[in-house]
Design goal:
Elements: H1 8-20, E1 42-46, E2 49-52, E3 57-60, H2 75-86, H3 96-108, E4 114-118, H4 121-136, E5 140-144, E6 157-158, E7 168-169, H5 176-180, E8 182-185, H6 190-197, E9 202-207, H7 223-234, E10 237-241, H8 253-258, E11 264-267, E12 278-282, H9 284-287, H10 306-317, H11 321-342, E13 348-352, E14 355-359, H12 368-372, H13 376-388, E15 391-392, E16 401-402, H14 409-426
Parallel strand pairs: 3-15, 5-8, 5-9, 9-10, 10-11
Antiparallel strand pairs: 1-2, 2-3, 4-12, 6-7, 11-12, 13-14, 14-16
The protein binds pyridoxal-5'-phosphate.
The site of pyridoxal-5'-phosphate has 14 residues, from helix 4.
């Protein structure tokens, strides 16, 4: 969108930002380059609505990319953070609150008996992989094309040539040796997984049990069960990255919803309640390989930070069965409304509990190649048209919309109206 007179403040901020921050942002997707516009500079937000520095108001379906399951500035979370802050913001020593949060996580997540907290999902998946390598004495990690597990060097890998071969760096600066320890296979492809596991040197298979970083692409029936049995047979661990799905799709995450129990689980986003917190967990036996009990080093100055833990606890404690039912209902009516708004256009709305993607493709999306095959230009036009009508949806075909408990029928109705108008405008 060209900077207009009314958008003078964001234009000015963006000009200043580009001088001191690469691309003007601290994380690439915020730049909105894939839909061909400038970033949105936020002034404030509350509930499901966000206001930019120029006073434009948006229904927010990004919700900070997942953490804000209760919407922005929920009073209970703010109160918890305030109370924690007054008692001191960080100690580098244990507190009662982090024990309570760990107990809450263990109670909810079927496979988790113990957790270790970190400040970001990237750290948590990096550490879970280190632990898996230590536990198996093997080096290779199998990941799926299009999956994102944070910007861990070895996971920024693309498929090499040939089936189940070593990965190649997907980013400048990633060592070839780091990428070579990753095998990248297509999602929903059992034969490719089997071929990778047949190498005999696989420490772990890591996946999002409901992938949401190539858009929302659920597993085909039986695929996760196959991953579970095939990893057991191969002596490899199964790591579920539930940074998005954890505490969102069900009280105990996707593993709770789908009944597949991984060896290690990576968590983030919702468990921080909007502050920086993440974690990984698993059986006592595996987790006690971590220092100071075991031989796998892992640490963090701000790990288990009291403010983040207080926000996470307050967030989890409000997530009862009624909350999940409401989140599901809101997601359902948004998905149905968007399908109606599309009026037979070649789009494909995929929904999960609290998640949704509008793929600009006629045929269903089962793999990353399918997601790449979408009409990204049409998506970009539609997304900019939505923003112009006060709806902030994730500005990339590879992201999911994040539904929150702050979104109500009115937000859904306004969004569906804007979506219909945006489809008209985008042609
Ligand atoms: C966001 C995300 C991460 C990385 O978490 P950060 O806190 O951004 O480092 C890892 N895995 C998945 C599935 C994610 O969506």
């Amino acid at each position: 969108m060209p900077a207009s007179l009314t958008d003078a403040k964001s234009a000015d901020l963006f000009a200043r930002a580009r001088r001191v921050l690469p691309g003007g942002v601290n994380s690439p997707v915020r730049a909105m380059r894939s839909i061909g516009r400038d970033p949105l500079f936020v002034e404030r937000a509350s509930g499901a609505e966000l206001v930019d520095v120029d006073g434009n108001r948006f229904v927010d379906w990004v919700c900070s990319w997942g953490p804000l399951i209760h919407g922005h500035a929920h009073p209970d979370i703010l109160r918890a953070v305030e109370e924690a802050a007054v008692a001191g913001t960080t100690f580098g020593a244990p507190t009662g609150l982090e024990v309570e949060l760990a107990e809450e996580i263990v109670k909810r997540v079927p496979s988790v008996e113990m957790v270790r907290m970190t400040s970001s999902g990237t750290e948590a998946s990096m550490s879970a992989i280190r632990l898996a390598r230590a536990a198996t004495g093997r080096e290779v990690v199998v990941k799926f094309a299009g999956a994102y597990h944070g910007h861990v060097d070895g996971l920024l890998a693309d498929a090499g040539s040939g089936l189940a071969t070593q990965g190649i760096p997907a980013s400048a600066g990633v060592l070839e040796s780091a990428a070579r320890a990753t095998v990248v296979v297509p999602w929903n492809d059992r034969a490719a997984v089997d071929a990778a596991l047949a190498r005999g040197d696989v420490a772990a298979v890591i996946c999002e049990p409901i992938p949401a970083n190539m858009g929302l692409v659920p597993a085909d029936d039986g695929f996760l069960a196959h991953l579970r049995s095939a990893t057991v047979d191969a002596g490899a661990l199964l790591i579920f990255d539930e940074v998005i799905t954890g505490f969102r799709v069900a009280p105990g995450g996707a593993q709770d919803l789908l009944g597949i129990v991984p060896d290690l689980t990576v968590m983030g986003k919702v468990i921080g309640g909007g502050l920086p917190a993440a974690a990984f967990g698993g059986s006592r036996e595996l987790m006690e390989r971590l220092a100071p009990v075991g031989d796998v080093y892992q640490a963090g100055t701000l790990s288990g930070n009291p403010l983040a833990v207080a926000a996470g606890l307050a967030s989890l404690r409000m997530l009862d069965d009624a909350a999940y039912a409401r989140l599901r209902a809101t997601t359902r009516s948004l998905a149905d409304g968007l399908r109606d708004a599309a009026k037979g256009r070649p789009v494909h709305v995929v929904e999960g509990n609290g998640l949704l993607t509008v793929f600009f493709r006629d045929a269903p999306v089962r793999t990353y190649d399918d997601a790449r095959d979408c009409d990204h230009d049409a998506f970009a036009d539609w997304c900019r048209a939505l923003l112009a009508r006060g709806v902030y949806a994730p500005p990339s075909q590879y992201e999911a919309w994040f539904v929150s408990l702050a979104h109500d029928d009115d937000h859904v109705a306004r969004t569906v109206d804007a979506a219909a108008a945006a489809f008209e405008a985008a042609g």
